[in-house]
Amino acid sequence: MQKLHVVARLFPMILSGEKTATIRWREARIAPGPLTYVCAGDPGKQAVVLVTQCTDMPLSQAAAFLGREADWPDAVLLEGMREHYPDIQLTDIVQVIEHRNEKT
């Protein structure tokens, strides 16, 4: 099964169904179907979701694509992504992975 690690502070939002997408850069390609999120720092915590869509686009388009442009203006999005990918630029192509909780 596909696996992605997610930082511990975001893991509860996956469990609750509040977090329904992730943006990845230069990581293993994800495809629609089952996916296991593994909580970084506590690999015993895992959540299975169903990936419904994967879309490649420049990072600069991801917030609008996900309907989060009010929450993630370019500077905020870039700062957040650089927490995980220090060299990323707004022009870099990312994979936007959308999912739904297996329980829903």
What does this structure look like?
The protein is built from 3 helices and 5 strands, in the order βαβββααβ. By secondary structure, it is α+β, with helices and mostly antiparallel strands. A 5-stranded mixed beta sheet has the order 1-3-4-5-2. Strand 3 (33-39) and strand 4 form a beta hairpin.
Question: Residue share in helices?
Answer: 10-25%
End-to-end CA span: 20 Å
Shape: globular
Give the uncertain stretches in residue-range form. none
The count of helical stretches stands at 3
Helices and strands, in N-to-C order? EHEEEHHE
**Could you say which structural class the secondary elements and strand pairing correspond to?**
alpha+beta
Integer average pLDDT: 95
Query: How many strands in all?
Result: 5
- Strand proportion, as a percent range, falls in 35-45%
What is the compact description of this entry?
By secondary structure, this protein is α+β, with helices and mostly antiparallel strands.
Keywords:
104 residues; alpha+beta; five-stranded mixed β-sheet; 21% helix
